[in-house]
């Protein structure tokens, strides 16, 4: 779902846990996490708190949002506060590659996305601690490898974590590989909140749609012989439903190795809008990166048949297009009912988000 979704949110988490003097010592983290406790950041400017796995699940069932910072808290203390590495460009140029992009965008295929999604939803669930969750990661890796094979400038690899389910990272080097990187991401895990490990969680919309939007976006770019000037990465995150585990781990790792990020966009849920409502791409209204948001609006106007709409303020930072404004989004997530057969699911809707993903990458990196 949306809260567990953006690098911007990851940055917020980083800001949440960064102190001049760490209040929670490395020793305490080692001991408590060794006992199975998790360190959760529940709100801005509030020290994270220790919870058991059961308490954590109860919070999730109650719809309470948090970051699980157990594995990144320590390392984040080493960075200066507000080490904001995302969106180093304050403004982004207006879209200018309509002529080259038009034929590429025509090749984005809902049939392909359906095929990819069928494979992903066939796993009982994609929970970060279940064996099928790990199998799903490997399926994505195999799929993106077959798409990118034959391109020596592209690598596709697993990003391993301390838990079983790896994230997946595809890197397109670009002609100047040390330039800031443009990243698009989606979370590949799913969850059944009543029984995370064994329960059925197809996660078709959350976030099967974003996941297949990016696989298909990668496919059309590679098929078009796309060779960017600046580096591009496609990420599929593990463990997002359990507190943004995968994206935080990657963001922290990138910060420690000094990776500069030009821009980031998340696709998390793109396949549903409430029947009878007007179809839009919903953009967040608060804590947004203004430059990136302005750019996204112009991208949507240039490349999508659907208009953008500002969502209601919900108090979390983000800069990404979401399937509908709050209240018109998919109510079936985190359950066995998150399938493509719900009334309101629309491949034609999701297609537009895949196109915006392609346009985002292309416009920022060619
Ligand atoms: C979780 O999975 C079980 C078994 O697969 C299923 O019966 C139940 O409806 C699921 N829970 C939710 C919230 O969908
Ligand atoms: Zn999600």
Describe the structure.
The protein is α/β, with parallel strands linked by helices and 366 residues long. The protein has 2 domains: 3-76, no CATH class; 98-365, Aminopeptidase, CATH 3.40.630.10. Helix content is 38%, strand content 13%. The protein has helices at 7-17, 26-34, 53-61, 73-76, 98-106, 110-122, 131-148, 204-223, 245-256, 290-303, 347-365, and strands spanning 38-41, 49-51, 67-68, 154-159, 167-172, 181-187, 232-237, 261-266, 281-283, 308-310. A 5-stranded mixed β-sheet has the order 4-5-7-6-8, sandwiched between helices. Strands 2-1-3 form a 3-stranded antiparallel β-sheet. Helix 1 (7-17) packs across helix 9 and helix 8 (204-223) packs across helix 11 (347-365). The longest helix has 20 residues, at 204-223. The two termini are 31 Å apart. The structure holds 2-acetamido-2-deoxy-beta-D-glucopyranose (NAG) and zinc ion. InterPro entries: M28_fam, Peptidase_M28. This is Peptide hydrolase.
Enumerate the strands of the largest sheet in spatial order, edge to edge or round the barrel: 4-5-7-6-8
Strand content: 5-15%
Total of domains: 2
Low-confidence stretches: 3-9, 11-16, 83-87
Number of strands: 10
Percent of residues in helices: 25-40%
Bound chemical compounds: 2-acetamido-2-deoxy-beta-D-glucopyranose, zinc ion
Structural class: alpha/beta
Encode the helix/strand succession as letters: HHEEHEHHHHEEEHEHEEHEH
Number of helices: 11
Query: What is the residue-averaged pLDDT?
Result: 90
Question: Helix and strand layout, with pairings?
Answer:
Layout: H1 7-17, H2 26-34, E1 38-41, E2 49-51, H3 53-61, E3 67-68, H4 73-76, H5 98-106, H6 110-122, H7 131-148, E4 154-159, E5 167-172, E6 181-187, H8 204-223, E7 232-237, H9 245-256, E8 261-266, E9 281-283, H10 290-303, E10 308-310, H11 347-365
Parallel strand pairs: 6-7, 6-8, 9-10
Antiparallel strand pairs: 1-2, 1-3, 4-5, 5-7
Helix pairs in contact: 1-9, 6-8, 7-8, 8-11, 10-11
């Amino acid at each position: 779902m949306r809260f567990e979704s953006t690098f911007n949110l990851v940055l917020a988490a980083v800001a949440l846990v960064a102190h001049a003097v760490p209040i929670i010592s490395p020793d305490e983290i080692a001991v408590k996490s060794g006992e199975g406790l998790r360190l959760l950041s529940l709100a801005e400017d509030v020290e994270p708190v220790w919870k058991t796995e059961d308490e954590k699940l109860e919070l999730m069932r109650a719809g309470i949002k948090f970051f699980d910072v157990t594995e990144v808290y320590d390392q984040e203390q080493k960075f200066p506060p507000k080490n904001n590495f995302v969106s180093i460009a304050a403004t982004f140029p207006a879209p200018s590659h309509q002529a080259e992009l038009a034929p590429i965008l025509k090749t984005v295929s809902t049939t392909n996305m359906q095929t990819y999604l069928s494979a992903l939803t066939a796993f009982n669930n994609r929970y970060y601690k279940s064996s099928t969750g790990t199998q799903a990661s490997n399926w994505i890796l195999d799929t993106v490898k077959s798409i990118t094979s034959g391109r020596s400038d592209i690598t596709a690899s697993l990003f391993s974590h301390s838990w079983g389910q790896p994230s997946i990272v595809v890197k397109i080097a670009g002609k100047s590989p040390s330039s800031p990187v443009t990243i698009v991401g989606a979370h590949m895990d799913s969850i059944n909140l009543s029984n995370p490990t064994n329960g059925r969680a197809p996660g078709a919309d959350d976030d099967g749609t974003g996941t297949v939007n990016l696989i298909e976006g990668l496919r059309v770019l590679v098929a078009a012989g796309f060779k960017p000037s600046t580096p591009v990465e496609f990420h599929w995150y593990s463990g997002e439903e359990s507190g943004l585990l995968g994206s935080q781990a990657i963001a922290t790792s990138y910060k420690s190795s000094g990776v500069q990020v030009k821009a980031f966009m998340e696709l998390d849920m793109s396949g549903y809008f409430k029947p009878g409502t007007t179809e839009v791409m919903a953009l967040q209204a608060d804590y947004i990166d203004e430059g990136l948001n302005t750019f996204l609006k112009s991208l949507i106007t240039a490349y999508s048949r659907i208009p953008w709409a500002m969502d209601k303020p919900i108090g979390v930072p983000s800069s990404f297009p979401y399937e509908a404004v709050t209240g018109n989004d998919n109510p079936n997530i985190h359950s066995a009912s998150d399938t493509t057969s719900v009334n309101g699911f629309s491949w034609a809707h999701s297609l537009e988000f895949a196109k915006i993903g392609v346009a985002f990458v292309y416009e920022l990196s060619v």
